[in-house]
Amino acid sequence: MSSCVTTPETGPAPRAGGAQAPAAVPVSGARSRRGEPRTYDFRRPTKLSREHVRVMQIAQEGFARQATTILTTFLRTGARFELAGVEQFSYDDYVKTLPDPVFITTFTIEPMAGKGMIAFPLDIAMAMVDHLLGGSGAAAQPNRPMTAMETTITTHLLERLLAEFATSFGTITELQPAMLGFEYNPQLAQAAAGSDTVMVATFAMAVGAREGEATLVLPFSSFAQSLNNAASPQLSESALRKRKKAAEALTARLNLVPVDVSVRFAPLSVSSADLLSLAVGDVVLLRHPRDSPLEVTTNDTTFAYAIASNHRRRRLAASIVPTPHAAVKDTA
């Protein structure tokens, strides 16, 4: 089941039917999707909380600033690398948003499991090579995979970017990224399994007069624990007391919530034919041993055992007894 969340500017949006849409957490800095309705897929609940987004945003903004400096220094031209937003996708859904061809580099994120990925337009990648060789980057760029020489020239620049990426993420966890290779067809990148949840940071990228969108992809499962630790703020004593008081109040209220409890014989399985043939006066054999206690259940879950009794001789009651397993253990 899918549903759309709408905003006052756009009004209600039609329900999504069948298509796997990303479950995204909007960021105030996201420009391209501001004011648009967000599709929420209940089969893929959001795992990236607002606290996680904030932690990622701080780290990615630091990386963006350093990346801008490195690109400008290496390419000797005006460059911009600016964070637009951080979102959650399934890897399959993310890959569908990429053009073909596109420049992709994959890298390890040791000691974390999984891979990371950086993707940006192929013409910008080719223009970067042009700048590194002393050109202006203004000419029309070839729409093809890089040659061995072009790949070697680009590798040094990307390794510097990965080094800055590791430094920027030092507040979250220690990383030692290493490049794995290049790819130009998004379907062949294989940075994660199709159903894996990934965190996608989107950047507005410009090299000279060329502009485009770059994305940095990281596996959520690898960073989940580190994000939780980084998102936990250091609270003052008064704030801790307030949280403790709120937790105690919540526990007290939960203890007052009414719960339906049943006392029953052991369940019995019968065929559908026997069930449909039951008539008034028929006897159903319960096969419940005479010396076995009854089950005390809630929501079809057995949590205690009891024997039939009465209360003040006027009402039936159930007297809680030890579980049969505990009784056997005590007599052994």
In CATH terms, what is the fold-level topology of the largest domain? Chemotaxis protein chec
Number of domains: 2
Rg over alpha carbons: 30 Å
CATH superfamily of the largest domain: CheC-like
How many beta strands in the DSSP annotation?
A: 12
Compute the separation of the termini in Å: 53 Å
Q: In the CATH classification, which architecture of the largest domain applies?
A: 3-Layer(aba) Sandwich
Average pLDDT, all residues: 82
What does this protein look like?
With 332 residues, the chain is α+β, with helices and mostly antiparallel strands. The protein folds into two domains: 47-231, Chemotaxis protein chec (3-Layer(aba) Sandwich); 262-331, Roll (Surface presentation of antigens (SPOA)), CATH 2.30.330. It is 32% helix and 27% strand. It contains eight helices and twelve strands. It has helices spanning 50-75, 91-96, 122-132, 148-168, 220-231, 237-254, 272-276, 324-331, and strands at 2-5, 38-41, 79-90, 103-110, 115-120, 176-183, 197-207, 210-219, 262-264, 294-298, 301-311, 315-321. The strands form three sheets. A six-stranded antiparallel beta sheet has the order 3-7-8-5-4-6. It is elongated. 26% of the residues are buried. Residues 1-34 have low confidence and may be disordered.
